Amino acid sequence: MTFLQILLLFFAAVLGGALNSVAGGGSFITFPSLIFAGTGAIKANATSTVALWPASLASATAYRKELALLNRLLLVVLVSISIVGGVLGAILLLRTAQSTFVKLIPYLLLLATLLFAISGPITSLLRKRAQATQKPQLSWLKLAGISLIQLVVATYGGYFGGGIGIMMLATLGLMGMENIHEMNAMKTVLQTSINGVAVVTFIVAGAVVWLQALIMIIGGVAGGFAGAYYARKLDQRIVRGFVILVGLGMTVYFFLK
Q1: CA 165, CA 245: separation in Å to the nearest integer?
Q2: Torsion region of 96: left, alpha or beta (phi above 0 gives left; psi -120 to 50 gives alpha)
């Protein structure tokens, strides 16, 4: 790996970590940067997941108060389902032929970019409904339905993961959750669980390129702290617009490639 590649990966991780702490979409930066640095597509996806996971874990701990208010049965069931789906998705990725995954990349990036683009309006809509009053009743039928949807989302998350946050927010809204802060807490824990078991699976399978991963972990943590510090000073519409442009740009690049 050349010095320029090291710089590329480090600063891509700094930017990715900062974006994740402000608006999300860090993988639009980290995943392509690994490919540009010469890492194979599947190992790039695995390494990007490993690089960004520590910051995701830190975000989950910030929701301790909201997590204490959640339905314990719902939390345990969905975390368990997320772990199963995350492992399934990671195994599916590892069993996908490199040539097939390369062909899927532009479609996966396009899906992730579109999901990210609509996440703002959906989150705003959910926030308008936010009420810290009576919690909706959780029936066994509703729990079974949400568990099935979460299994699909978690499997996609273990495989690629772009846009799973808004998928889970929309799903939690459909099931009747109304408090946006509790929904974000649930989403963050589930996303951390999905990526966590995917990380373990990738490590066990030897799919992680460790030198690149360590460089990006350091950069991602630094970017996460910087992003958290400056988050209140930035117009998130500009940040989100930047992420969408990057996502579309990467999509077009991989379609043309």
Answers
A1: 19
A2: beta
